[in-house]
């Protein structure tokens, strides 16, 4: 024989196979009337209080966190975070731009280094050519000195001054000088 508690609980349970078949074979109208009777029945007081306490228990922290989330400190913190993110994005854009400029300047520096190396090579070649020409000029100057010395000795040996020899000597000096400069 079921106890009172089992009877109360049996109203909330669905019929099972163990129950007698007469209950499960009830006409549809009886089932509807039973459901309508259950819907009209009041909840036990302890269950209602428990649900009220649960609702209050959830509502109080919700209100607390809503107040905290809308507090001045929280709003100021969110504003500061937003400003910080904007500043961070601005600084990131500046950094990216600076890196692009750096890459451009590095490329320009590499081109300048290449140009400097080319100019140094050209300068070395020109310096070698100048040294060669100075050597030839020194040789020609010695030849001119030698010829002038021979000419002077000859002129001393011969008592006559021959302007024609001086003219030839001068032409030789001019010729060798021009030849040296053309190279």
Largest sheet: none
| Mean pLDDT, all residues | 78
Task: Specify Rg, calculated over alpha carbons.
Answer: 59 Å
Gross morphology is rod-shaped
Helix/strand-derived category reads mainly alpha
The run of helices and strands is HHHHHH
Helix content: over 70%
Oligomer: single chain
Strand percentage, roughly? under 5%
> How far apart, in Å, are the first and last alpha carbons?
137 Å
- pLDDT below 50 for ≥5 consecutive residues: which ranges? 13-26
The total beta strand count reads 0
How many helices? The count is: 6
Primary descriptors:
183 residues, 6 helices, single chain, rod-shaped
Tell me the layout of helices and strands:
Layout (H helix, E strand, L loop, with lengths): L3 H7 L10 H4 L3 H13 L4 H25 L2 H86 L5 H20 L1
């Amino acid at each position: 024989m079921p106890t009172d508690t089992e009877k109360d609980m049996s109203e909330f349970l669905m019929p099972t196979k163990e129950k007698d078949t007469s209950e499960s074979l009830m006409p549809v109208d009886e089932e509807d009337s039973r459901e309508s009777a259950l819907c009209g029945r009041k909840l036990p007081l302890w269950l209602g209080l428990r649900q009220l306490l649960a609702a209050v228990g959830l509502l109080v922290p919700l209100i607390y966190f809503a107040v905290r989330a809308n507090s001045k400190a929280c709003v100021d913190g969110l504003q500061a975070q937003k400003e910080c993110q904007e500043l961070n994005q601005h600084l990131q854009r500046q950094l990216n731009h600076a890196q692009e400029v750096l890459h451009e300047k590095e490329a320009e520096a590499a081109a300048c280094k290449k140009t400097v190396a080319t100019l140094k090579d050209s300068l070395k070649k020109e310096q070698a050519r100048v040294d060669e020409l100075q050597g030839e000029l020194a040789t020609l100057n010695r030849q001119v000195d030698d010829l002038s010395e021979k000419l002077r000795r000859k002129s001393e040996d011969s008592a006559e001054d021959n302007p024609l020899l001086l003219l030839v000597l001068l032409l030789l000096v001019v010729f060798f000088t021009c030849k040296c400069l053309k190279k």
